[in-house]
Amino acid sequence: MFDDVHSSDEESPVPDADSCSGKQLGELFTTTLQPCSEVSASLKRVCGLHLSQSYDSRKLAVGLSRKTLQLYDVREGGDISISNGTLGQFESGIRGVRFFNGDSNSLLCCTEQGDVFLYDVRCSDNGAVHRFEDTSEGLKKTMTSCDINQNDRVVCATSEVQKNGDTFLLFFDVRQRKYLGCYWECHSDDITNVRFHPSNPDLVASGSVDGLVNVFNISQTTEDDALEYCFNVETAIDSINWHADPTGRDLVACVTTTNDLHLYDVASQDCVARFEREQITKAMHRTSAIDCNVVGTHNYGNGSFFVLAGSNYNKGTECLRTLRYDNKTLLPDRSFGGNRQIVRASVYNEKERYLIATGECGLLALWKCDNEPETTVNGASKGLKQKLHVSHRAKPY
Fold first, then answer.
1. What SS3 string covers 201-265?
2. WD repeats span which residues (predicted)?
3. Would you say residue 177 lies in a domain?
4. What is the DSSP letter of 18?
């Protein structure tokens, strides 16, 4: 993770380019969009690392590499404008930003130093109303990500490997504003991402450098019982996300640090699909896999999802596209013109149908999208299964 370090473009033997003609590209990516709004987060050199949008779609929180948390307004027409400026200026890097699911005024921000700050964005003094921290073992633990569950009652923050060799999922009670407990035996390396299930408040998934994606049911009494599923991706994990297919089954998408994409069926523990960086590059109709940048995955809201990916060539300006997932295949979807940076974070508004992205130039860009495609997610190939045995731990709350 970095604070004020920008991408050093990977050496490519040949410049990255489209693998087909402009006419063919237009036939494949039938929708080409231009940003309807773009603002700069700072006049200084800065990278946008984290984004979160309020559930009412009107507020946008941005975590910057200069250890600054900013708040923006998103108007109905798609215009982005600075709201009340800087919410927080921290001593250590921002590691996660998340609005509450049912309260557009409540916002979480976790920092590397080991704090999770709770903000009421209506407050004029821009100060945090509470700070969650775990000092049960003396020093605070170095944090890497955070999320809040569907009913806005439990916060989970994750850690790097600590000096004692353990890595932690830390739980906090939002209403009582206190530390609840932790899990610490299911990962053996830095936990890079944590995501609660979008509708089930008891399910949470975590991804780690150790290559494991764990799914926990935090309503269980012990850590051993809470661990319901474990998927071995066999490479370091950058980010994860929950999706659902038209039949309602839960899927977990995993983006690796090598820009591969894995998709798992949670209930059956099957690997539904795997796309290596080269396959994603081919699906984007680009020529250089070493330049492929997989930003993440987003739900359309109609039982399907898409992958946002771009090219690092020419500082990201050449290519930013989405690929629609359909029956173990990535299909050309939309092309986002006017991008001026290597994208590092994005949010997609399912209701308003627009994409917001930020990245290594510190720009916030919004593209309005057209109607979502009607797709299905079918079939499941047999994949890798693994169940870990861990010692019993007390229920975190």
1. CCEEEEEECCCEEEEEECCCCCHHHHEEEEEECCCCEEEEEEEECCCCCEEEEEEECCCCEEEEE
2. 184-226
3. yes
4. B
The answer to whether 308 and 295 are in contact (CB under 8 A) is yes
The residues of the chain scoring below 70 in pLDDT are 1-13, 371-397
Q: Which of 8, 7, 51 is nearest to 239 (CA)?
A: 51
Whether residue 299 contacts residue 305, with contact meaning beta carbons closer than 8 Å, is answered with: yes
| Structural domain includes residue 379 | no
Q: What is residue 116's predicted lDDT score, i.e. its pLDDT?
A: 97
Is residue 294 a part of any domain in this protein? yes
397 within some domain: no
For the stretch 128-155, pLDDT in tens is: 999 999 988 878 999 999 999 999 999 9
Whether 230 contacts 197, CB under 8 Å = no
pLDDT of residue 389: 38
Q: Are 331 and 276 in contact (CB under 8 A)?
A: no
pLDDT tens by residue, 151-183: 999 999 999 999 889 999 999 999 999 999 999
Q: How remote is the C-alpha of 197 from its chain's centroid?
A: 13
Q: Do 207 and 242 form a contact (C-beta atoms < 8 A)?
A: no
CATH code at 156?
Answer: 2.130.10.10
Provide the pLDDT for residue 125.
76
Domain residues for 178?
22-368
State phi, psi for 27 to the nearest 5 degrees: -75, -30
Cα-based distances in Å from 78 to 73, 264, 343, 353, 355: 10, 34, 19, 10, 10
Task: Report d(CA 218, CA 204) in Å as an integer.
Answer: 8
Query: Do 27 and 351 meet the contact criterion of CB atoms below 8 Å apart?
Result: no
Say how many domains are in the chain.
1
Q: Which H or E run includes 26? A: helix 22-28
Residue-level pLDDT at 367? 97
